[in-house]
Amino acid sequence: MSNIYYKEGYKYQLAETYSIETYLRPYVESGNKFVSIDTHGVLTIKEGYAWDGASGPAIDTNTFMRGSLVHDALYQLIGLGVLPPNQKQYADLMLKDIILEDGMNPLRAWWVHKAVKHFGVIYQNQPNNYLSAP
Question: Is 52 helix (H, G, I), strand (E, B) or coil?
Fold first, then answer.
């Protein structure tokens, strides 16, 4: 018998590849099989990418989904060393811009931004611990 290896904590899986322009300009295109950023700042999140939606006590709503996807992907690129840690602030601001664009109440968007600004580093630095079964 052989084991399987998996991770916990994901609620959603992207059904189609999604790309968005950013102001980030890495020197080389880099990432992994699910998320990458090119030298022009285009963030590409591929079909099958898994993320957890809104973190902490926040509620998943339609106005939060795209922002949480992009935010999680940017944090993952920071965690992989593709983007420098000081780009956390940009990722947090991009989240705020996207959720406002998608129609979130400005007061809620302000609270979301404050939360990720202060607590986002906890999620950004989580280890990639694998579980196994049986």
Answer: coil
3-state secondary structure of 15: coil
Phi, psi of 108 (to 5 degrees): -65, -40
Label the pairing between strands 131-133 and 18-21: unpaired
Q: Is the peptide bond before 26 cis (omega within 30 degrees of 0)?
A: no
Q: Which two tokens stand for residue 37?
A: 């950023």
Local confidence pLDDT in tens for the 134 residues of the chain: 677 777 777 899 999 999 999 999 999 999 999 999 999 999 999 999 999 998 777 889 999 999 999 999 999 999 999 999 999 999 999 999 999 999 999 999 999 999 888 776 655 555 556 666 66
Q: Where are the domains of the chain?
A: 4-127
